[in-house]
Queue: 4 jobs
Job 1
Amino acid sequence: MNRILCSTGALLGRANGRDYTLLADLEDKLECDGFELMMYDDWYEKADAVSAFLNGMKKPFVTFHVEKGVGDMISRNAEGDTEKAVELFEKNCELAQAIGSEKLVLHLWSGYDSDKDMPHCIEMYARCRDIAQKHKILLTVENVVCNQHDPISNMREVLKSFPDAAFTYDTKMAEFHGQLMDIASDENRPLWERVVHLHINDYKGGVMDWSNLKTLHPGDGQIDFHRFFDFVRGSGYKGDITIESTSFGKTDGIIDINKMNCSLAKARELARPVKEISEENILECVKVIRSSFLTVAVQFGFTQENAPRFTAFATDENRIKWHMYGEHRRMFGYFKDEKMVGYYSLLPNDKQECELSNLCVLPEHRHQGIGEELLLDAFVRARELGCTKMEIGIVEENRVLRKWYEGYGFIHRGTEKFDFFPFTCGYMTKEL
């Protein structure tokens, strides 16, 4: 499951003195699973104090962003730069290891000199990787903006020399170069398979528009995050996600916790759009179920008069409450822009079996892969409940739906006709 992290660089800057002690007051207010620590150049002399303080906090520092000056020196490669970069990188690794970080994010090309000498950058990657491995931390290279080539081409060069290299993919950096969805191409599949971390930030500007290289919150720019995350989820990505969007005033340094929490919630929704519902969602569930099944009723000629017990007509607030509190069904919704657009429920029994019911998607949100995501999510949740078999009931005459379920391994087991339905009930099962 993707952990949603908050970058400390989004909270701390020159305006508030880069004061890491502010994090202690913030961690309970921020709705994140942990942090990505942004290292600053004025922390080297107080690394022990930084480590001691951060180790006293409750939330983990899962990822460590190497101080950006290291990348500047690697790219500049003037006299003394290489050894100084190695020295500082080692200090970054020492602090990262001391606070329990799992991954490092490195700007392998950076600053004015950027990617002018990629062979040297790749040589430095090898040295830095050896140091990171000594400290038992995974080194990742970020697709940082560049001025000679483009980030994906540079990442390919790294991968050519080191097939097991790992990467961090930043949405703003990618959109800046007009490359956001290039990572989804078949050509770049080997590259995407080595992406283990995501930075989620928005961008508003043209290709390589240096005047607009700001770190915006999701929704404040032009990136189609729904499209991007449709790809991310469809690829089976399991890595972590960091929100880096600037959340403090550039003059007063005041941290906007609500703004950051909104972006964290957005990332969580995009990465995990299916979530268990609570009583406050019941009326929304009723609307989604009735609206979704009404198209089936229209297609097959079911009406309130000839099929009053059909889902489109029989579902109301009391029925869903009975499912939740009487039958103790587990109920889940697919949320898009904080609106429920899909639904399903699970009813497990003591035979390690469960019934999947009312899986549906609002008509205007169909043909986007949402039904598949709901079904695959149901498989995972059912297995977590200890179930080894799943059962469903369908309108037998709905051949398209039956074929869809068969495509996911369901086997047709039989039918039954009831006097109160103008259709035949079909039953299917799947071994989990």
Job 2
Amino acid sequence: MEFKTTACALLAGALLIAMPNTEAAAEEYLMVTGSSSNFRGIALFDTEDGSLVDASYLNYQDSSGVLKHPMQVGDEIWIAAQLAAVIHRFTLDGEYLGDIDEAQPGQPLNNIRGMELVGDTVYLANSGDTGGAPGPAIVQYDLDGNWVSTASAAGSSPFSVLYYNDELLVGHNDTPDIHRHDLDGEYLGVFYDGPISWVQQMNTNEAGNVLATGWSSNGLYELDADGDIVNQYGAGSPRGVHELGDGNLLWTNSNGVHVLDVDSQTSTTVLSDFSGQYIDRLVLDEPTIPGDLTGDGQVGGADLGILLSEWGACDDCDDCPADLTGDCEVGGADLGVLLSNWTN
């Protein structure tokens, strides 16, 4: 045993000199709901520059009407389907799980739009009252999709919900354009009332300001914490908006998905033949790295120490983490797997 351990340690020391650093990073994207002539679902874009990553990441043709807002909720993707009046639920890989179709037990949803996740609560904007639906309201769900409560929304047609400065901002297609609510849904007052017309999606940017689309006023707007416009850019009937890592803006309309250069104030289309809707982040777990025995996302000396300490036949074949090859023994083949994935 001592000889084997010493030999392995010497082999490891020799090989480590040539081991490259290939540290894995979390996969993060911007997801956009929309539809084209042959597609309905989610496309993915690069968070830094808005370039297209996957034009058909999640394809769900079974939904009727507009897929409005995609949002990651833990290990799921929820999509608010506006006219179908349900929230579709999927795994992060795009497997359909089912729908949330009630505002509260026995009460339907109707004409739903944007969502927001705050802690363990999902907030949904409901507008219609057909079939006994609650009308203009902010409906709350827990992370399992269970109804929590419903609060009336000020104004007649709420579109988007944004968590901002420990409150909820709710955008509308009437005036005042953006209202304030507390996290229980109670009305607090007006955040913005001005020339922005028909606020669809809102997001925050790196500066801590609010980005808002004006669908009828054909613009993208940046508002400070007082609700004053500090920047505005021309954009034809925009629906969704999100800041990119390079400071430019990814935005959507019925013609596609575009990147606005904030310096030149010109837009470039990155996906056409795509009726784009809202934009939100998708963060996928770091891929499991064979040999990461400590679970820290890297393969290094600590993992090598664990493997060498378990060298030989496994006491329990079902509980032998260092057996990377699954042969119920920790040996040279397992060492080779670990070293081939060395990151630190």
Job 3
Amino acid sequence: MTSSIKHPKGLMVLFFTEMWERFSYYGMRALLVLYLTAELVSGGFGMERGDALKIYAIFTGLVYMTPIIGGFLADKFLGQRKAVFIGAFLMAIGQFFMAFSQFGELEVREFFRNNGLGLIIVGTGFFKANISTIVGALYSENDIRKDAAFTIFYMGINVGALIGPLIAGSLGEGINWCWGFSAAGVGMVISTIWFYAQRDKLGLAGMPPGREPKEGEAFYHLTNKDRLDIVIYVVANVGLIWGILKLWGSLPETAKSVIQWILIIGGIGFVLYLIAANTKGKQAWSRLSVIFILAFFNIFFWSGYEQAGGTFNLFAEQQTDRTIGTFEFPATWFQSVSALYIVVFASLFAALWLRLNVIGKEPRTPVKFGMGLLLMSIGFVIMNYAAKLAGDNNLISPMWLLIVYFMHTMGELCLSPIGLSMVTKLAPQKIVSLMMGIWFASIATANYLAGVLESILQTYLPNMHLFAFLTLSTFSAGVLALLLSPILNRMMKGVH
């Protein structure tokens, strides 16, 4: 493939597939904490703030942890294309389960809620890492378009993240929760139909491992066996989630703790074995080390960024003046702000990286990470001041949140799409999806921290405000990333 500026047609296929999937996810995520804390009489679950944030932390953490498993199954058995279909079907079912969870007796509602969240978690595991891997497969290793391609793909993510909270959030808060979650489910159905209808434009990317294309075959055709595999995996995972939740609810706390540690230790050991078995030579190990080091910095960034769905969401609802004349707009609308900024600025960043590359001035990947973390830190300086202005009883201007989201989004554009591109460049070919899963596992860790960090600080550092702590942590990580960048550049062994 030449390195002309024009991108493959398959990029737009993946753009819209991911756009509708993110519409579904972010529409649902915008509602989750508000749904859990809403009173029973209004269709919610009447949870306390801390309990709702804990569920949010576990859910968003596992959503980004399961791509390790989905990536492994795609690399070894399924191929990325089938894995995306499996994930899409599971997430659609999960969203409609969430819609049903508003109705019936509390026990029935909890059944649909818990199984719905479980299906979305597992479905994301099959979908998330593998669609990003297919993007990378459209380009050669050192194609100068790859960073720009992932930035364009990332814009698709955020078009979905923009309209999801506006539509699903408005329906959920304005009519009832069922309408909001149903809208998220419809978005996932559209994503699946589009991905299937446009499959020929993806060529042979994402084929099952070991399958060779037939003579004259220009794109990957799903066989009857492929379709049967998809059905089996979907049905098996629906049953598996139900079984796990039923068993988990009957276990004593001690047994749960033991099982958790066994799974954690066993899972880490298995992943390390797979990495060791498929990584050969000093160059490959050096490049792989960079992925792990940057994944560490990734945790600092996303533990701050993911306050958007938790503490920022509650701040918007309780401490922000949301009235325009006589109209009070929903708190969930703020969930679309970052996405709007990305839609506006992503193409500019993509063009900027290409232009800087042409003149030999493009920052290397570790430097972009440092820049992103420092911009995140500036955002929390502003947020910390806004929280002091609000105090306990004041409503402050929405401009404060708009400015904070702007700074965080500029940091995101320096770091997140670049990280996805980096993994496809540096990972050994046999475990690209697995390493993409590990990359998302760093985001999973950050998501969990984002949900529980406030409680941790209240316990161990009661005088430290959450936003002040995140100011310091992201600033320190950003400075360290910049200091280490010359070493990391050498370790990348020629990959930009």
Job 4
Amino acid sequence: MRLKNYLLNTTTKFGNYKDIIGKNFSDFSFIVQQLFTTVPAHLKRTQEALFERLNAIQDLGISYLSPSRSGRSLSGGELQRLRLVAAVTGYLDGMLFCLDEPAAGLHSDDAIKLFSVLESIKKRGNTLVLMEHHPEIISRADWIIEMGEGAGKNGGKILFQGTLKDFLLQENSPTRNWLLRLNKSKESPRKIPDQSKNLEVKNFSKFGIQPISAKFPLGHFSVITGPSGSGKSTLLFEHLIPEFQKETYAPLGLKKINILSTGSFQGNKRSTIASAIQISSPLRELFASLPESKLRGYSAKKFATHTPGGRCETCKGEGILTSPDGFEESECPVCLGKRFRDEVLEIRFKSLSFADILDLSVEEAMYLFEAFPNFFQKLKTLADTGLGYLHLGQTTNQLSNGERARLRLSIALQKKTTEPSLYLFDEPARGLHEIDIQKLLELFFALCKQGHTLIAIEHSKDFIQNADYVLELKTNHSSQ
């Protein structure tokens, strides 16, 4: 608490300040309304705004949280909806709300609650435009626009736009067929042989969640699902990880742990796909080792964009110029977007300059570096997560949330090990379309075949239907 003791010890009939903010929002809301039944006229609007936000927290289904709870202990879905509280309160009308995957990482129950809140915003006379892959949101939309057919340069086409009724009649629509398949399929895990070795959890409880017991089969793929507040993130980060660190699972033969979170990947204009997957340095060294580079005395630094030497100094190696207000970008008139000086671009590898290679897609670069394992394996991992269309020189601030999530996942998966390992995933399918989810599942199955144990927090029906073991948690009890 960052308050002085005399403030923390200020007492009401409901307890002191510390006691009150330690309660969940349901109880906190009741207490606040009892304490502030009447307020001075100049604080009336403040009182109304406070009550509106508390009501919004109730409507969004996160009233089990407490005002004093640390933000670090919250799941992605909880943080997402907390950020929405400010947007859904007030009396704004005639507004256009553009939301980027607001239901990403949400359980179906939570997505339905979210949609009811979005409906209330719409009824005030506002317009909402959502970029969304969640089936519960798509199936309730008034107007659907499907983009495709592929990603990157293979996308950009409008495959369909219209009402849900017309959308469901489009037999060639990948998204429509996916929705119908999800509705027909049963959410039941695949059958696996009985085995004695399991990663067992016995009556774990923390942060007020009900005791959780589970048996995750070794060498298989397990999914933990359930609405927000049921204890998924708590089980993963407050039990499984600490227990592994205590070597509780050592007798099971699990030698290493890999924690793969697809949370926020902060891209920037200096970071490229090549640098993110750590092939920039080997690529500079490769060009520095070429005969022409040695003849001219070029070192690897000559091919760097982050330091002076071989880069274009007009754009500082970015290939673009940004307006003073930061909103407009234009191609550098000196290097014409190539990032380097002309003499550097004269150095060629298989007839391609450094700039030419940065302009290649990941898939194209795989063929170019097929005989170079240190390049090929990193590129292949990225392609396996469905990002083969990205260009090596593309800056990470240009990526969508889904692309950033998969890029982060790809970086983590590059650290492969032959020893039996425990892989823990926190919502790996967040913001992904069904096509991308299938590619991700193939990657997961390959890891299981290598003897690794995978446990993922996930709400995607595709994941649940393909899991070997499913632990579904409830807000008041758990079941499997």
